[in-house]
Amino acid sequence: MKGLPGGYDFARDAWFARIGAVGNVVGRVTLMTPPHPPGLVDSALMALDRSRNALALRIDTIVGGEAGAVAAAMVTGKRDLLSDDTKDVIREAGIFHIITISGVQMTLMAGIFFVGLRRVLALSPSLALRYPIKQWAAATAILGAIFYDIATGSRVGTERALFMTLIMLGAVLAGRQSLSMRNLALAAVLVMLVAPEAILGASFQLSFAAVAALVAVYESRAENGAQIRDERAGLVAPSPMRARIAALRAFFGHGPPALLFATLCATTATASFMAYDFHELNPYVLIGNPLTLTLIELFAVPCALLGTLLYPLGLDAFVWHYLGLGIRFVLWVARWIGTLPGASTHINVFAPWAIVFLTFAVLSAVIWRSALLRLTAVPLAIIGLYGTMNGPSFDMAIAATGDAVAVRGADGALTIIGRRPSQFTVEQWLGADADARDPHEAIDMSACDRIGCVGILADGRSVALVLDDAAFAEDCLRADIVITPLYAPPGCAAPLVIDRDRLRGSGAMLLRAQGKGWAFDTARAVDEDRPWSPAPPVWKRARAAPEQKANDSPDASQD
């Protein structure tokens, strides 16, 4: 169910994940019939998950504090121990990906297996000269990457990183170039075949955009290097411009400048998706990301591998203490970044077509080989940026359940009214409005009593949120707008009435004042009928009526 039109659709993701329902249970759960015993695979996965939980608790206990929770998340993929404050700190610093097992960790883990085994085998001249030790190392790295994916919970982002890693290592096995745009495209196609819904998720968009930018830089550097070699060999005439470009690439190709340049490229490619999906940008990411990469390379991945191997022997404590030192330093820097002015820039909701043009701009910049074709990204980006600054505004937002309403007052800020508004929905409303307030600060509990709530719009019109049938008699006569999760009585005299029946067909709503009327933007499109969002029964009856009438007509054929 979407919290607002165009927002995150939990029902869609739940349907593709084959989750039928979610909820909470108070008290002891008693099964009426004994469950079927788990099979061999399920038993193994359950045992692995119990081991991950035990390891996460051990790391958290040894390291301690918020650093312990971050360490547990980095090693095992378990984020349950993280506090909201810690999440906010690393999010505002633009380094939230340190607690996700994704591309960087997967690549480093596979690289440790690949490079480590290859170097060990190369110690033997007989093996190095007579056997394909590079392919042997790649095959071992494939097995190591698959095990790492399973051992860390096989989340969606981890699976995508695994697909890309397997394709790259598969190219090594086949004797082909591993890091290429073609292999990235194959990984994207494979992900879409296995999980087609992933293309609408932020993780897919961010990971593939970042990798595409890095691959484009790598291919451009390789092409320029080949041209330099041709010049030195006398195959082509020397070019002063190419020499200058080569000097710049040499400077940004090694050490800290290379890390900053890679961060800049990846950040630029993912900025539009970050703003579109999360309505937020972190301008100091050039500080946070190099720190993140350093932490992952020098602390997280080596410690995860060594500590997990020593854990059964009880000799892993010193490894987690070492990991904790690096995490505490990064958290200290993250808190400092959070105090800087403009550390977190909030973005309004985009025009629906803006992200399309921005996506084409990124693709044009990374796919084309010639500079002329890459310049086509500029007009596409300009059109997309225009759409980001001209997104739809709203004066009122209504939850899909009808039990909470956001009202824009005379001060231009949103006020949330409702007895117990969903925090997730309120976060979506505030994010779409580029409002940095905490959801609890925006909720006005004084506007509600036992049977309803009242809000006042900027133009003075009153909004009544009716939560009990007893409030209809007064609010239908006095309020300009009546909103309710109940069924409104047919005689309600308010100029605009939005009740349970109407919301069932429209889902969440955004309303924009147009004179004395309203423009509506609904989460559910007209005649929308999808497996995760079935049409209301009244729509199905309406569509079936013409067919029934045709079957009942005298001209209908009889068997």
* Mean pLDDT value: 83
Number of strands: 11
Strand order of the largest sheet: 5-4-3-10-11
Q: Distance between the terminal alpha carbons, to the nearest Å?
A: 44 Å
Low-confidence stretches: 539-559
Please count the helical segments.
22
Largest sheet: 5 strands, antiparallel
Overview of the molecule:
This protein has a 5-stranded antiparallel beta sheet, with helices on one face. A 4-stranded mixed beta sheet has the order 6-7-8-9. It has helices at 10-16, 40-63, 65-76, 84-92, 103-122, 125-130, 133-151, 156-173, 181-194, 202-232, 240-251, 255-278, 285-310, 317-339, 354-367, 371-374, 377-388, 423-432, 439-442, 472-478, 500-506, 537-552, and strands spanning 280-281, 345-346, 396-398, 404-408, 414-418, 452-456, 462-466, 481-483, 496-498, 509-514, 517-522. By secondary structure, the protein is α+β, with helices and mostly antiparallel strands. The protein is built from 22 helices and 11 strands. Mean pLDDT is 83; it is low at 539-559.
Highlighted features:
559 residues; alpha+beta; five-stranded antiparallel β-sheet; four-stranded mixed β-sheet; 8% strand; disordered C terminus
What topology emerges from the helices and strands here?
Elements: H1 10-16, H2 40-63, H3 65-76, H4 84-92, H5 103-122, H6 125-130, H7 133-151, H8 156-173, H9 181-194, H10 202-232, H11 240-251, H12 255-278, E1 280-281, H13 285-310, H14 317-339, E2 345-346, H15 354-367, H16 371-374, H17 377-388, E3 396-398, E4 404-408, E5 414-418, H18 423-432, H19 439-442, E6 452-456, E7 462-466, H20 472-478, E8 481-483, E9 496-498, H21 500-506, E10 509-514, E11 517-522, H22 537-552
Parallel strand pairs: 7-8, 8-9
Antiparallel strand pairs: 1-2, 3-4, 3-10, 4-5, 6-7, 10-11
